[in-house]
Amino acid sequence: MKFLFMNVIQKSYRRHIANARGITMMELIVAAGLMTLVSAGVATGIYRVMTSQNELNKKFDGSEFVASLGRSMTDRATCRSFLSGQILPTTTEFRPLTMAGYKGFGDSAQPLASGYIIAGTATSPQVVVTDLSWRLKEIVPASSYFRMTHNGVTAEYLKAPMQLRVNLSVYQNGIATALPSRYLDYSVVALTGTRAVTDCDGAPSVADTCAMLGSTLNPDGTCQINVEGCVIRGSYVNSRCSPTGYTCRATTSSPSRPHPETGTFSCPAGSQAFTSFNYTWVSEERTGKKSDINVTNTIQAYMCMSCR
Questions:
Q1: Where does the pLDDT of residue 2 fall: very low under 50, low under 70, confident under 90, or very high at 90 and above?
Q2: Cα–Cα distance measured from residue 148 to residue 26, given in angstroms and rounded to the nearest whole number
């Protein structure tokens, strides 16, 4: 009996010592397994966050490219250098476009067309133009053709409202993701015979306007018209956007210019305003990280004519 009592005491003491020393081996194995699972989950989460951030950066590069192209297309000189000599599409269906005169986005200087690499390299592309095409927004009837002197050349022209479509893809681990199509609206002037683009906007210079009216530009800046006693007494440009408070492409590409004599957007007394240019388009402006607003841009130019 004494031996049995001592054996029970020893076993109880051993259990007490084991519990006092800490956790058991089985508990340690379970804890290590849980820690491995937690670590794997955290690592996966970090990888996903980094991958998502990388993809957002690429999408931002694509948006910046389209915004830069949009600003270029609303600048007359830049737009003309991109499109001069291009043959207008004959329908309202989109047709592939190559801008040989494109100056490049960032460090790239290759012609702008389908396959243009915005970010990355040919062997490892990151952001790529998958489609660049343009179309007539509406068919221009022959009744709308007009004869004018433009850049010193007198011929028959048409002014065509155009739309440019840009499709981009971003690459992540070799897998391409297509972004929504983006559209840019602008206007060009082309010869009616060859349909070759000669200019963007179509806003003629004062000298061209005088020649178009069959007159000549006087040394004092007035335009002597072939109607006895009539002269053009200067001009003014009124550029504006609606709503206000956002980036205004109209005032950037063609700043407002009051009449030099009146200092306002009106003609001198005794003369009448005639519209020489009127162009309106809509641009998409950023208002926040994920929000945009449509801004209506308007450029109007007037010639002041005085006849006795």
A1: very low
A2: 94
